[in-house]
Specification:
This protein is of the alpha/beta class. The protein has one domain (5-176). The protein has 5 helices and 7 strands; from the N terminus they run ββαβαβααβαββ. It has helices at residues 28-46, 68-81, 99-112, 120-128, 155-159, and strands at residues 5-11, 16-22, 53-57, 85-89, 137-143, 163-165, 173-176. A 4-stranded mixed beta sheet has the order 3-4-7-6. It has a 3-stranded mixed beta sheet with strand order 1-2-5, with helices on both faces. β6 (163-165) and β7 form a beta hairpin. α1 packs parallel to α2.
């Protein structure tokens, strides 16, 4: 069957989730593409006229606060969407505070507990059939994209990201603006 890598977006105000299930690698480009797919399929319809997008992210992994490719991928996404992306990372060791963990992924895990994950179709269907008494709905889709590992982002590429650090913990809290900086 190969790999199945879930990356999710949880809309706290709507109690709705999106999960892209990748088959290649869990990279920053994959994470940004999952956010892009959520925006195209769900977010842009619900939040017409949005002036910015807020992402709360773990401190490590493909969307790490120290990952240069994450910032570059989000900058590309901000340019595509034409809106700033605000990012607030959870401090190291606190990823379980992220609402997506205990309001979405824990229910997905319960839903597929004891069931053989024999194909991507089964995985997608189990994720998408996850609901709760409080009305959680999850949409899931397979991402057949290829996301190579080992991509290095040069100092020049990072400098071109229009990143505005917040006054409080600017390493964890920042905005990525959709226009290029002059190099």
């Amino acid at each position: 069957m190969g790999k199945a890598i879930p990356y999710g977006v949880y809309d706290l105000s709507e109690n709705e989730g999106w999960v892209s299930v990748g088959i290649d690698h869990d990279t920053a480009r994959f994470a940004a593409e999952a956010i892009h797919r959520w925006w195209e399929k769900m977010g842009s319809k619900r939040y017409r006229g949005a002036k910015e997008l807020l992402i709360t992210a773990d401190g490590g992994g493909s969307n790490s606060s120290r990952c240069r490719l994450w910032k570059l991928a989000l900058h590309d996404l901000a340019i595509q969407l034409g809106i700033p992306i605000q990012v607030c990372h959870f401090p190291p060791g606190t990823s379980k505070w992220n609402k997506i963990e205990h309001r979405m992924f824990c229910h997905i895990t319960q839903n597929w507990r004891g069931r053989p994950l024999v194909s991507h179709e089964v995985i997608i269907n189990l994720i998408a059939s996850t609901t709760t008494r409080t009305g959680l709905k999850i949409h899931a889709e397979l991402d057949n994209g290829h996301y190579p590992t080992g991509i290095k982002v040069s100092d020049e590429e990072l400098a071109a990201v229009n990143l505005k650090r917040a006054d409080f913990h600017g390493d964890w809290n920042y905005a990525i603006l959709p226009r290029q900086t002059k190099t």
